[in-house]
Amino acid sequence: MALQEDDFKKVISHAKEYGFVFQSSEIYDGLSAVYDYAQQGVALKNNIKDYWWRAMVQMHDNIVGIDSAIFMHPTVWKASGHVDAFNDPLIDNKDSKKRYRADVLIEDHVAKIEAKIEKELAKAAKRFGDSFDKEQYMATNERVAGYIATSKSILARMGDALTKEDLAAVKELIEELKIVCPISGSANWTDVKQFNLMFGTKIGASADSAMDLFLRPETAQGIFVNFLNVQKTGRMKIPFGIAQIGKAFRNEIVARQFIFRQREFEQMEMQFFVRPGTQKEWYDKWKETRIKWHYSLGFSEDNYRFHDHDKLAHYADAAADIEFKFPFGFKELEGIHSRTDFDLSSHEKYSGKKLQFFDPELNESYVPYVVETSIGVDRMFLAIFSKSLEEETLENGSTRTVLKLPAVLAPTKAAILPLVKKDGLSELAHEIFQELQWDFAVSYDEKDAVGRRYRRQDALGTPFCITVDHQTKVDQTVTIRHRDSMEQERVAIADLSGIIDRAVSTKHWLKKMA
Q1: Which residue range(s) make up the domain with 431?
Q2: Do 368 and 473 fall into the same domain?
């Protein structure tokens, strides 16, 4: 665990040092669990959103996008269940006076057990070599099987207690597991209480006439209340989807782990409307589609796993998370939920408006069922950033820090570097830069020795460095250096655009999903 913590500290440090993520209002000592995306970070974040949008909207002829308002009529949140049921179970330690999410304390305890499993598997893999069968070992090794059974039992008990809203049982489980406060080291806990996560505000010119509002805690409701508008104006037929990228806000009392859990965050989600009775089929289909999207980015499949929910939300008949192996363990990255007809039916009830679809094949109207895919932009950013950051020892014994971002997402695709500032090389490099910037995000750098510039671009995640030297003036060729392999090759200036495009085009990357 200490090694993981050190790795995570390096991620946070690198994010700040190279202009990806800053603490919000840092000159005023910051604001807890609120972050700003800096010049490199906003480019990476926008590329993540674009990659999702193209896969979700552009590549599906039955999915369209909207951008709904953050402020919504307060009855929306009554209908959705957020006013009455959008709570986290919180517990305080009497000695440290620190507050924690009870479910997170239990999940962290399970994560420690899972770390033991990983350690046992690593030892076994080293011992057995190429003959090692991971699945068989997990099923037959008594110690590992025991760890797995214990983890499942704990999560099942927690899920059952939370489903029944039996907060006493949640505390009992914490005490039984001998979970202590990380600060005080004591198990002197208060009772578990529910805390509503919505931020309240007001709208209106005066206190007398002001209406109570909420900052939206999710983006999904903006899709549901616009279901009929989109369906009619877009002449959409079931099945069809509505996608959206937008900000949401939650008053997280226990916000931590950098940008993993924030009070202001961004979601990419799609609500797919289907005929009642077909939701399980579409649920399975979207689970498969979404995991392929993640795999397309090229990270090892061992970094992902599905986790079926032990506790279903009040609106769901099936739910699973795609979990990612963050530096602090496997945590939720994306949720796929079969939401039934809860949302549309509830909005029908509270609004008095029919939210139904007339199905010409069945010759009847019905409230569609919904399958949701929802992913946090910030969590996706952290997953990609943390998994891409590596420290390599080179053949000469030196080390380099390299951010091996998927090229399609890299903030800068190529850096143009004149070998020296004189002899007309800067002017020639500027010409190449100005031509490439029509099609790609490129940068220009002439400060420091070229080796140091290479290292800086490695740390920024730039896939290519293009060096302009004296030979360039003679034969119109440059040296192109590949970030991951550090290999260099001589290519014609005229070929640069094609080389970069083949490496960074969305088409090239998304075709891996086929």
Answers
A1: 396-513
A2: no
